[in-house]
Structure formats: structure tokens, C-alpha cells
Amino acid sequence: MFNRFLASIGIGSATLDTLLEKARYTPGEEVRGVVRMKGGSVEQDVDTIEVSVMTEYIKESNDHKHNVTVALARFHVSSPFKLRAGEQKEVPFSFVLPLETPLTIGRAPVWVKTELAIRGALDPGDNDRIEVVPTQGMATVLEAVEQLGFRLRKAECEYASRIGGRFPFVQEFEFVPTSGSYRGRLDELEVIFYNRGQELEVLLQIDRKARGLAGLFAEAMDMDETFVRVRFSNSELAAGPYSISQELANVISRYA
């Protein structure tokens, strides 16, 4: 009886360890792994094993920025079962990493959170960081932007409920022109990706450099920024970075 009480407050309860097949993924890729559990000092009823994909974004309120943790997806990977005292058990699982998963570039952590939902006890958990890298299409666009003379300055996930998709944030890739024809014409170029499966939608925020009194006024009123949406099919992206850079140049030059 005393051991059951201790388990209810987390002492002598079951433990778990999540092992992923690998540590690097792209959005939309299948994630496979196994949950290893070891029973504690008493038998416990496990209602379910829940695996979640977690990340953070920055939200500003009252002139202060703070991090908000959000679950991009939750998966129940087991039905209820009993975990006997000292028993070792493994449960395999797989799921598809959401297309909205941010890339782990800059300050954008992504991790897989595993929890045992144990009846009448604290739920043990495990967190496993993963690396999320660009899909081939995203990598093509990023390389195309660099070919136009831009350098990536920072990448952040920020609250943006109006332009977000299923979630109230977007990941912004902020570029600055360091060479080429846009140096001196643009302050920065921000790139936001929306993975659509058969196509990649790109939102460009084109920030023009202030010129003269009118330009300074426009900059002060945020009128020097233009948002443009561009869509690339998978076949267009397969043509490579140079082809995409020419299409981007045609779009950017209309607003630079």
C-alpha cells in the first residue's frame, strides 16, 4: 500500500526512454521509434502512451517577448495495458512529421515528447530533441535567394496569427543583401514557407531602403514593406536554384 502511494507521487513509478530511429528529419517525413518502459515498485495501469511533436515561438505582449510552447501534433501509440512491477516493455510507433514543423535553424527547437498516462499517478515523460532540415524544395529556394546576393541573418518562429496556417506562428527567414543588384535598394528580405505537398508556397516580405524624405516617411509608417506570395510546383523546383532565382528576381525587382 505504501509503495502504491509513493508511485502515485512519482517515487518508484514506471520509467521510460524513447529511442528514435535517427535524429535528423525533413517536414513531412515519417518518424519511427520505440518507447522502452520499465515498471516501478508496483503494478500500474497505463491508459495510453502519447507522443507529441513540440516547438516554441516568440510572442510579444506589453512590450515584452516570451516563448510559447506549442504541440504541433499528438499521437496515441498504445491502447490501455498493465505494467507489472519491474517489467520491461517496448512499444514501437511511427508518425508523419507535420509539414508545418519549423526548421531547427537559429532559435527554433523541435523535440519529441513522450508521456505515459498512468491512472492515479504522476505521468512519467521523456523529451528527445530532433534536427529538422529543409526539404529539397525549401533548400532550392534558400539557395536561390543566396544566389541573388542575400545572406541569412536570422531565423525565428514568431507569433503571426493573420498569416499563420493551422498554428498562430510562422518561421521567418530574414535575409540581408550583401552583394548583387539589391544591395543599396533593399534593407532586408524575409522568406516564409508554406508546404502544400505538391507545391511550395513562399511569402516574401520585401523591405525597401528609404530614399529621400518620402522614403523616410514611408519607412516610419511601415509603408516601405510589400508582401508577395509566390508558388512553385515540385516540377519547377526540380529545375534547380538558378531557375528559381530568376523567377524570384522577376518578382522582387517589381517592388525593389
Global morphology: elongated
What fraction of the residues are assigned to beta strands by DSSP?
over 45%
Total strand count, please?
15
CATH architecture identity of the largest domain: Sandwich
Q: What composes the largest sheet?
A: 5 strands, antiparallel
Cα end-to-end separation? 73 Å
Organism: Paenibacillus methanolicus
Protein name: Sporulation-control protein
Pfam family, one: Spo0M
Précis, in short:
The chain has 256 residues and is α+β, with helices and mostly antiparallel strands. It contains 5 helices and 15 strands. Pfam families: Spo0M (PF07070).
Keywords:
single chain, 256 residues, alpha+beta, Immunoglobulin-like, 2 domains, five-stranded antiparallel beta sheet, 5 helices, 15 strands, 18% helix
